Amino acid sequence: MLNPIIHSKLPSVGTTIFTTMSALAVKHNAINLGQGFPDFPMNSELQELVDQAMKDGYNQYVHMCGLPALREQLSQKVNEDYNANINPETQITITPGGTYAIYTAFTTILRPGDEVILFEPAYDSYIPNIEINGGVAVPVALEFPDYRINWQLVQEKITSKTKAIIINTPHNPTGKVLEESDIDALRALVKDTGIFIISDEVYEHLIFDNKPHLSLLRYPDLLERTFVCFSFGKVYHCTGWKLGYCIAPEPLMKEFRKVHQFNCFTCNSPVQVALSKFLQQKKEYKQLGFFLQQKRDYFQQLMQQTSFKALPSHGSYFQMYEYGDISTQTENEFAIRLTEEAGVTTIPVSAFYKTPTDNRVLRFCFAKKESTLEEAVERLVNYFG
Ligand code: PMP
Ligand code: GLN
């Protein structure tokens, strides 16, 4: 008798590190500074707008590319923030989250054997997204401990098969942000090539120390070849809403939508109605960087009671800490031990590498209430004595 057998398209993939560590945190009743999500409440006015939208009857499918009023607001927003002239009808598609936008961009452009350059440590969805589309991931290591991009190394990785480069600023997990010199180097690299760019900008407003966010929407010459991916979850403290959007030039977006319409078709309607109204009234995302910078600083100050050493973070929810003075264990072993024995969960940065790498650094999420951060550090102090 014949039984169906799956020949896995992702044979080397297990469960994501975020799910694994969050489950371990629950099991050991640990404070979860691992997976990136806030533990403070989101804006209640925005919640009420969703409630109202449902009561007002916005419960059926909205336009396949997203609620027109929301796309219109986004077009105005990116014009104000990045001086970008974006047509809401042809260049913006609302997606169920940033990850989906990135996945769809890869599906749109990749054919078997195409190579994609990415920077390690890399957000963990990129490589499986590339491989399931038949692509080949070509990792370039960011240089420890500065995590700068060595553009010469990138140049050396370019071949006739290079189809795309994926960048991420502010960067998860390092908190690094790209500078103008990086944009210039990227421009020089892709000029007169057929290389696409996927720009993961989900942390666009979570940026600190007065650094500007260098969205690729600012550069029309680069935007010509770019899918720019965003997430509402990060901007409005509602990661569980899983809503985002992609902006791209019309010819790219046309193909993106062909994929999108037969995978998701359209996203949650009341949330889109609420966000379109909220965006019209409020610009609270403009304070987000300052709000999170205070949390980064508070956590860093608390961590001075321990022997963990902070690496710089200029954006995102995260800061990385070295623990080489405390233990010689691998990141994975040490992160498990901290959860099981100290009651604090983190993410081992080695999980963001395909190329085996262990610099003895852990990623901490500081997007938490002050009391949560205080208790976590108290537990570390008590455990290490
Ligand atoms: N990219 C990066 C770098 C992220 O950290 C996240 C966080 N989840 C995403 C994309 C995806 O965001 P979303 O939850 O909207 O899919
Ligand atoms: N982006 C989040 C992080 O880096 C997690 C999202 C997820 O669990 N997939 O922690």
List the helices and strands and how they pair.
Elements: H1 17-27, E1 31-32, H2 44-55, H3 68-82, E2 92-95, H4 98-109, E3 115-120, H5 126-132, E4 136-141, H6 151-157, E5 162-168, H7 180-190, E6 196-200, H8 220-223, E7 226-231, H9 232-235, E8 244-247, H10 250-261, H11 269-281, H12 288-303, E9 309-310, E10 318-322, H13 331-342, E11 344-345, E12 347-348, E13 361-365, H14 370-384
Parallel strand pairs: 1-11, 3-4, 3-5, 5-6, 6-7
Antiparallel strand pairs: 2-8, 7-8, 9-10, 10-13, 12-13
Helix pairs in contact: 2-11, 3-11, 4-10, 12-14
The chain binds 4'-deoxy-4'-aminopyridoxal-5'-phosphate and glutamine (GLN).
Explain what this protein looks like in three dimensions.
The protein has 385 residues and is an alpha/beta fold. 39% of the residues lie in helices and 15% in strands. Helix 2 packs across helix 11 (269-281), helix 3 packs parallel to helix 11 (269-281) and helix 12 (288-303) runs parallel beside helix 14. The longest helix has 16 residues, at 288-303. The structure holds 4'-deoxy-4'-aminopyridoxal-5'-phosphate and glutamine.
Index terms:
Aspartate Aminotransferase, domain 1; globular; 2 domains; 39% helix; binds 4'-deoxy-4'-aminopyridoxal-5'-phosphate; 385 residues; Aspartate Aminotransferase, domain 2; alpha/beta; binds glutamine; single chain; 14 helices; 4-stranded antiparallel sheet; 7-stranded mixed sheet
Q: What's the alpha carbon Rg, rounded to whole Å?
A: 21 Å
Morphology: globular
Count the strands?
Answer: 13
Say which molecules are bound, naming each kind only once: 4'-deoxy-4'-aminopyridoxal-5'-phosphate, glutamine
State the helical fraction. Answer: 25-40%
CATH architecture of the largest domain: 3-Layer(aba) Sandwich
The number of helical runs is: 14
Q: Which structural class fits the helix and strand makeup?
A: alpha/beta
Q: How widely separated are the two ends?
A: 62 Å
For the record, the CATH class of the largest domain is Alpha Beta
Strand content: 5-15%
Mean pLDDT: 97
CATH H level, superfamily name of the largest domain: Type I PLP-dependent aspartate aminotransferase-like (Major domain)
Largest sheet, spatial ordering of strands? 2-8-7-6-5-3-4
Listing every helix as H and every strand as E from the N terminus to the C terminus, the arrangement reads HEHHEHEHEHEHEHEHEHHHEEHEEEH
